[in-house]
From TrEMBL:
Residues 12-53 form a coiled coil. The gene is slyX. It holds the Pfam family SlyX. This is Protein SlyX. Keywords: Coiled coil. InterPro entries: SlyX (IPR007236). Belongs to the SlyX family. It comes from the Bacteria.
Amino acid sequence: MQTIDNDLLERLELLESKQAFQEATIDDLNQALVLQQREILKLQEQLKLLSDKLKASAPSMIASQAEETPPPHY
């Protein structure tokens, strides 16, 4: 009977150890995910600002109405 109790106790301790390790791993992964999400949001904002800046500084390929010459039949 004592062998069964010791065997069960060892198995229980092993399960508790694995469960604690899994909890620590999940917490570590969660922290990494939070940091990555913050970095992605920061990069998206920088990309938007860069895109807006590029659009503002790039000359348009379409002339404004004031710059358009009238068609020849006018």
